[in-house]
């Protein structure tokens, strides 16, 4: 007996709302398919009619979580087109905001992963600590979501001594809490047993399907734009690329927890070595005819902007590739041969922001045509109950 | 591998199939190839230079032609492969047999530019809605969005 399960499409969180249609036999998913474009905003077309500085604010609004990623990617591309260079202090502040954003995004994701696995205490802990980062970002930029700290030619706000001290003080708390999560989240037997072996993506498949970010790094591939193609000041920062070899959701948790610790290291270095000087240079209004490929390691993976200028103050073409799009083909592969109960967890594991929204899942019985409508919350409840009935898997490997 | 070594390898491996090799910035290499050699070139980049990772495919409307840029990347550089196809016969070959991850980007090209990707494993629309009018390709320069006039129900 075969069932079809459409998931999605509407949710307000991402640039790419998504509908997944899955065919399964019994509990096992046999086929997964993706349909995008339910809320396509036509930003690439709109960008051709806006000036570079207007586009900066447009790209900021591509995503609510990695808003700084898109503006940095766009701004550093346009700076190359205009042949200007941001001053070093500006680049330091830009990188600092980028790493703080990564911390808030990964803490958010850890909470979501805990929530989907039925470990709500973990969710509440990480989200409480995420507020510390959000407060830092608010103090730095004045905003919690769209920081608007970038401008073409540098950044818009400087850091003073009080802010610097406040961030360094809060960092101690964050490091302590993250070490605690390493212990509780990755060594806690029930949590590890739930996420180990779920959503397998082998190294070869991951490479063939062009997956990016923590998703591919959890399959043992060392791929990080910050190392491979250093932008801003990453070339001088001390950090390691974090990988895991388990190729499953557990690996993706391990990679993100390790990346948090690397980010704290970088934030500390950036604040202690902050150079003096101006934070931005004046940018011209127009860029002469040229093209540029700008790459950026967002919390979810590589973000790429291809910008073509034609001599006017507007781009001829702006192509944006957000990391979640690159991870879709790999997600479909991860879902295959998995259980219905694992759909929320696997899907959350690529960090697509899709699970923050309440959506409807329609289950159709292929034989009788009977339909059953479940919300994502009900699907989550179903998955937790399903695993309560099953014994804890003994073969789960402990990573630390 | 530095940029110069990569350029040498491209020149040695592809001979006259790689045209206009440019290196405008560190770790950025652009070159052009004819669309008939596209699959062969993608295969070369993957096998000889380790560029199994295709970041994305960008289309650009250049009036009489469409330019298509394939952004490959390996650990040391971002290699951008350009090709073009005429507007009145917009066909390009699919590179999915070499790079299976390219399928979403090729579907996006079909939707937004009206290109026909020959041999694509999954030709369904990706982004545009099911009731989108035919022969409307939003990212072509001659396509303009016009908001339909607002009708107030019960109004005059």
Brief summary:
The complex is a heterodimer of chains A (about 400) and B (about 160). With about 400 residues, chain A is an alpha+beta fold.
Description:
The complex is a heterodimer of chains A (400) and B (156). Chain A has 400 residues and is α+β, with helices and mostly antiparallel strands. Chain A has one domain: Cytochrome-c3 Hydrogenase, chain B (Orthogonal Bundle). Helix content of chain A is 47%, strand content 16%. Chain A has helices at residues 43-47, 52-60, 67-81, 88-116, 120-141, 161-187, 189-195, 203-208, 213-217, 225-228, 249-272, 323-335, 343-349, 376-389, and strands at 2-7, 18-25, 28-36, 150-151, 154-155, 290-298, 301-309, 315-321, 360-365, 371-375. Chain A has a five-stranded antiparallel beta sheet. A three-stranded antiparallel beta sheet of chain A has the order 6-7-8. In chain A, strand 7 and strand 8 (315-321) form a beta hairpin. Chain A is globular, with a radius of gyration of 22 Å. The relative contact order of chain A is 0.18. Chain B is α/β, with parallel strands linked by helices and 156 residues long. Chain B has one domain (3-118): 2-Layer Sandwich (Beta Polymerase, domain 2), CATH 3.30.460. Helices cover 22% and strands 29% of the residues of chain B. Chain B has three helices and seven strands. In chain B, the strands form two sheets. In chain B, strands 1-2-5-4-3 form a five-stranded mixed beta sheet, with helices on one face. In chain B, strands 6-7 form a two-stranded parallel ribbon. In chain B, helix 1 crosses helix 2 (38-49). Chain B is elongated and about 70 Å long. The model of chain B has no long low-confidence stretch (mean pLDDT 90).
Strand order across the largest sheet of chain B? 1-2-5-4-3
The SS-based structural class of chain B is alpha/beta
CATH fold-type name of chain B: Beta Polymerase, domain 2
* Secondary structure tally, helices of chain A: 14
Quaternary organisation: heterodimer
Low-confidence stretches of chain A: 11-15, 353-369
In the CATH classification, which architecture of chain B applies?
2-Layer Sandwich
Our Rg estimate of chain A from Cα atoms comes to 22 Å
Strand content of chain B: 25-35%
């Amino acid at each position: 007996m075969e069932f079809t399960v459409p998931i999605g499409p509407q949710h307000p969180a991402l640039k790419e709302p998504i509908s997944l249609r899955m065919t399964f036999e019994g509990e096992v998913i046999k086929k997964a398919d993706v349909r995008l474009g339910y809320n396509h905003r036509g930003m690439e077309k709109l960008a051709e009619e806006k000036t570079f500085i207007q586009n900066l604010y447009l790209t900021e609004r591509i995503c609510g979580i990695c808003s700084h990623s898109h503006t940095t990617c766009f701004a550093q591309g346009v700076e190359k087109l205009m042949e200007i260079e941001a001053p070093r202090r500006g680049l330091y502040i830009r990188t600092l905001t980028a790493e703080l954003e990564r911390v808030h995004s990964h803490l958010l994701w850890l909470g979501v992963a805990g929530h989907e696995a039925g470990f709500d205490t973990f969710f509440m802990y990480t989200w409480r600590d995420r507020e510390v980062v959000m407060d830092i970002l608010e103090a730095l930029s004045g905003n919690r979501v769209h920081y608007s700290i970038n401008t073409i030619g540098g950044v818009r706000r400087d850091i003073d001594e009080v802010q610097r001290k406040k961030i360094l003080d809060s960092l101690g708390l964050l490091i302590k809490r993250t070490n605690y999560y390493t212990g509780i989240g990755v060594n806690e037997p029930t949590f590890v047993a739930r996420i180990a072996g779920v959503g397998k993506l082998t190294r070869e498949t991951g490479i063939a399907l062009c997956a990016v970010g923590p998703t591919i790094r959890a399959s043992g591939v060392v791929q990080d734009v910050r190392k491979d193609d250093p932008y801003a000041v990453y070339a001088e920062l001390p950090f390691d690329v974090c990988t895991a070899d388990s190729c499953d959701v557990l690996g993706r948790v391990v990679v993100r927890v390790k990346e948090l610790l690397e980010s704290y290291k970088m934030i500390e270095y950036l604040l202690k070595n902050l150079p003096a000087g101006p934070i931005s240079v004046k940018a011209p209004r127009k860029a002469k005819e040229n093209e540029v490929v700008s790459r950026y390691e967002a919390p979810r993976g590589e973000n790429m902007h291809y910008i073509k200028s034609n001599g006017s103050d507007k781009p001829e073409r702006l192509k944006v590739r957000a990391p979640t799009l690159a991870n879709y083909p790999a997600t479909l592969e991860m879902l295959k041969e998995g259980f219905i109960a694992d759909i929320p967890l696997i899907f959350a594991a690529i960090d697509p922001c899709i699970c923050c929204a309440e959506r409807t899942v329609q289950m159709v019985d292929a034989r009788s045509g009977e339909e059953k409508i479940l919300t994502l919350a009900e699907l989550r409840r179903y998955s937790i109950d399903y695993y309560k009935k099953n014994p804890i898997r003994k073969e789960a490997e402990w990573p630390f | 591998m530095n940029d110069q070594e990569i350029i040498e390898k491209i020149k040695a491996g592809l001979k006259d199939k790689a045209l206009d090799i440019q290196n405008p910035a560190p770790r950025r290499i652009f070159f052009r190839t004819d669309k008939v050699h596209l699959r062969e070139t993608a295969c070369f980049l993957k096998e000889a230079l380790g560029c199994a990772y295709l970041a994305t495919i960008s289309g650009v409307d250049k009036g009489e032609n469409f330019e298509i840029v394939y952004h490959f990347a390996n650990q040391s550089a971002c290699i951008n492969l350009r090709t073009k196809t005429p507007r009145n016969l917009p066909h390009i070959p699919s590179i999915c047999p070499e790079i299976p991850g390219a399928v979403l980007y090729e579907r996006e090209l079909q939707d937004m530019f009206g290109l026909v990707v020959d041999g694509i494993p999954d030709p369904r629309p990706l982004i545009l809605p099911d009731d989108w009018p035919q022969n409307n390709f939003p990212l072509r320069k001659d396509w303009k969005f016009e908001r339909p006039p607002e009708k107030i129900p019960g109004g005059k």
